[in-house]
Amino acid sequence: MSVVTRFAPSPTGFLHIGGARTALFNYLFARHHGGRFLLRIENTDSKRSTDEAIAAILHGMRWLGLDWDGEETYQSCNADHHRTVAEQLVADGKAYKCYCTPEELVEMRENARNSSGATRIYDNRWRDRDPSEAPTDIDPVIRIKMPLNGETTIADAVQGDVTKANNTLDDFIILRSDGTPTYMLAVVVDDHDMGVTHAIRGDDHLNNAFRQHHLFAACGWDTPVFAHIPLIHGPDGAKLSKRHGALGVEAYEEMGLLPEAMCNYLLRLGWSHGDDEIISREQAVEWFDLADVGRSPARFDMDKLMNLNAHYLKSADPARLTAIVMAAVTGTTVSPDAENRLIAGMPGLASRAKTTNELVDFASFYIVDAPIKMNDKARASLCDPVAGEMLSTLAELLKKATSWDEAELDGIARRFAESRGLKLGKVAQPLRAALTGSNVSPSIFEVMVVLGPDETLTRLENAVS
Ligand code: GLU
Prior knowledge:
Radius of gyration: 32 Å
CATH class of the largest domain: Alpha Beta
Strand content: 5-15%
Number of helices: 19
Structural class: mainly alpha
Strand order of the largest sheet: 1-2-3
Bound molecules: glutamic acid
Largest sheet: 3 strands, parallel
CATH topology of the largest domain: Rossmann fold
Shape: elongated
CATH superfamily of the largest domain: HUPs
CATH architecture of the largest domain: 3-Layer(aba) Sandwich
């Protein structure tokens, strides 16, 4: 059997963390088994679905590198087919038309609430009634016949066997009175049509699985393997919500996270492979299976995500990070040397940043030519009259450097500090301020090498004057 999975978001909001993780698991499971990963936009709720949400979902999927096979499907396009299936089920005696008025349904709800032990709300009023009794002034809904007795067991690939008594399953509506399919019908028909073999989704859908299982059976179709993954919780153990910082995926992109860090983090939320924490996409595809998905909810931890991002920043290709920084500074007057400096200086910058936004900030002194902006601390360390004299003497010594590399520059500064009876730090502080406009930076000798002699000396002269 060739594996087919799908991610089936309802475009009523942005692609949130939980949805992104569901998409990732479906993607990895399909790729691991050499199968297909499909994307189905479940936009049947026309009042709540928006084009903006669809665009955000597609963008988020692409950003995370979760490429789906073929074109995405839009569920609303299949509504006629859903209707035909519902009508066929009526013709086969597996479903029936129900003509209950809203008042009758309210009454049933109340009866169910008042009678202890009642497990169904709908009292099957039209299940076996003669259709000739149908009122002419009411548009019926179509309900599916659920088994009246016994129990249903779902062999869930994550949760194990889960059993439910059939007397808790109402004859639910599959087609509304206006002829539109319900979510339950649309999902089942589309999963069948798309050849879905494994439905991996949040465990908030576990209850639906029992109903969907009977709908698949009524249609004469195999039920896909269900895999219900525990929802993500916040650090306090409560279901993840906005309060915990659960934002749309695009918010993490804007925060300056790298997609590979995000994917690695989401993967470890509920799935594990021994003690491995840093897992590449290739390794994830090789290792991912449903057997290693945990049964208890994972907790979202922003600090862990940030640390993982810092790790990926350190190992990212300098040219790629340079492109990210350059794209972020359009509109600023950049030095013609900015790109070369960034590529050369990137390891020193990236090892200090947790996000690409921070990286852009740290990199600012490489992007422009003198005169550079100074922060308050840098300005203060340059206002000291001794600093000015030190920097101008040091500049003279640097002009005589035999080669412009870190060891030579370090030696010049050290010998100068010693000649004044100072620690190197006392010299490095105003030097750093003059060259970077800040009191924190990569190694100051690395900065000098990246800037080159001309720009270094110009910055020193500016600082002195
Ligand atoms: N559209 C549903 C949702 O966004 C998912 C349906 C499914 O995975 O079966 O929650």
